[in-house]
Amino acid sequence: MAHRDPRRLSRRQFALLGTQVAGAAVTVLLGIPIVGFILSPLFRGQQAVWREVGDIGGVPDRQPTKFEVSFPLGEWTSANVKLAVYVVKINTDYRIFSNVCTHMECPVRWEDSLRQFLCPCHGGLYDMNGNNVGGPPPKPLPQYVHRIEGTTLFVQNRFTESV
Amino acid sequence: MGRIAAAYNWFDERTAIRSLIRKGLYEAVPVRGAWFYTLGSATLVLILLQLITGIFLTLLYVPSVTEAWASLHYLTQHDAFGAIVRGIHLWSAYILLFVIGLHMIRTFFSGSYKRPRELNWVTGVGLFVLVLAMAITGAFLPWDQAAYWTAVVVTNIAVYTPFIGSFLRALWRGADTVGPTTLSRTFGIHVWLIPAILFPLIGAHLALLRKHGEFGSYVNYRGAYRSREGVDVPPAPKQRPIEPPYPAVPTDELWAAPLETEDFYPHQTFKDGVVSAGLVILVFILAVAIGAPLEAVADPATTSYTPVPEWFFLPLDELLLLVPQQLIPLVLVLPTGGVLLLLALPFIDRDPERNPFERPAVMVPGAFAVLFVVILTLLGSGRLFNL
């Protein structure tokens, strides 16, 4: 039997290597765009927009009052989404709360009988200052970035701290 | 030879269809307890019902946040047959979750997951998880209030994953908040991604079943009769009439072959047919009589709507309520740990004993786990529906 030079590829080894290289090339060429496509929305970030909420001059002292505000629904649609905004006036100070519960993002509501914000899903409670005072919520209610011109409230579609 | 027989022969020569059909129909299955062995075929029938009705629902449904609810509202209001198709899709999903659970409990208590059927069990656990994932993603799609708030809460659970929580949540939502991309992604996951894994896995589950044969339960085997009824060793197992050898790898002579078997067709298919047809009739009645509900369109600005989870989500929802704020990740850890434990079960419990009364170390924790889920469900339904 003739000796084969062990440093040289045999015909079989060459075919095996070629198959593996072809498979790897297809995997990489398909994988990069697909993974990038799935991940790309995460890196685009949300465009900050200001929207007018309305006249808050009539909001009574220490009586959280609900307003609604429209924000763009998404990147490729011209539709809007309406969100709830709670305006809390304490003396001359205004706080603009989102009603998104910090536990599971359920819609928090002001319960006048409790004098607290209540989350209907799992019984989370927040006081008038938005502090989580009962139930499972781990953080205070988020507050909108806002500005007040005269008595007109404007909010941005982001919170003062990331939640 | 008649023309039909000749055509059949022509076809058989080119496809070997005759031996395929023979192999499919003439499998030896254990006789005693055979009604319990209908749960697997019932699961398969209900999954096929999902596939068929699901395909037809995509002929009308529009996966867009501005159109999804309206398309189903039209279906419910103006298309009696469409409403029935949607009703069948919903009710067969509900009953499927029940039946696949019973199938799993039956397999667990009969010890059917033991060698050489470990991978039958592992693929089965995979199918159970995928069916649950189908139920959860399907619940997002109507985009009514119930669907929207289910989408919000379910995707938000991901945020409590250690280290990569907000990344995972954004990956599913396609943004920081639930919106149009969430619906597109969840629709794609529901109709393409999960089925593309689910159906090949069903194929593997069935191929393994045919390779090893239906185990049945300890009552089908020699030692069982002896220990239960105190009689002497009964006659040797009947020779299985049809190939392949049963089972491929005998692990323990006692558990190698059931005492008494009969052909899958028509004996087991009769029982399978009765149970499956009964379930399909039940699904049809529920679909016509109750149908699939559609609440008001999703309103993220609501301060009056109380989100109520789907019933199969109640155990997890009750955990969300009970777990204090420092321990919220437990809501992820418990189900994940449960699934991992189920996957590991046949590799932990390797004793060949199949009699559930002789296996208290596995039966008691298993029974407690089932009880735990049932109690959480009862607590959740009591809280939400004032029962």
Describe what this molecule looks like in 3D.
The complex is a heterodimer of chains A (163) and B (387). Chain A is α+β, with helices and mostly antiparallel strands and 163 residues long. Chain A folds into two domains: 10-45; 50-159, Rieske Iron-sulfur Protein (3-layer Sandwich), CATH 2.102.10. Chain A is built from one helix and ten strands; from the N terminus they run H-E-E-E-E-E-E-E-E-E-E. Chain A has one helix spanning 11-44; strands spanning 50-55, 65-72, 80-90, 93-98, 109-111, 116-118, 125-126, 132-134, 144-149, 152-159. In chain A, strand 6 and strand 7 form a beta hairpin. The mean pLDDT of chain A is 92. By secondary structure, chain B is an all-alpha fold. Chain B has a single domain (30-215, 224-312), classed as Cytochrome Bc1 Complex, Chain C (Up-down Bundle). Chain B contains 14 helices and two strands, in the order ααβααααααααβαααα. Chain B has helices at 3-15, 17-25, 38-57, 68-78, 80-110, 118-140, 145-157, 165-173, 180-212, 222-229, 264-289, 314-322, 330-348, 360-385, and strands at residues 28-30, 261-263. In chain B, strands 1-2 form a two-stranded antiparallel ribbon. In chain B, helix 6 (118-140) crosses helix 7 (145-157), helix 6 (118-140) runs antiparallel to helix 9 (180-212) and helix 12 (314-322) crosses helix 14 (360-385). The N and C termini of chain B lie far apart (69 Å). Chain A binds chain B through residues 38-39, 41-42, 46, 66, 68, 73-74, 76-77, 79, 81-84, 99, 103-110, 120-123, 132, 136-138, and chain B through 65-66, 149, 152-153, 156-157, 167, 170-171, 174-176, 179-181, 299-307, 317, 320-321, 323-326, 328.
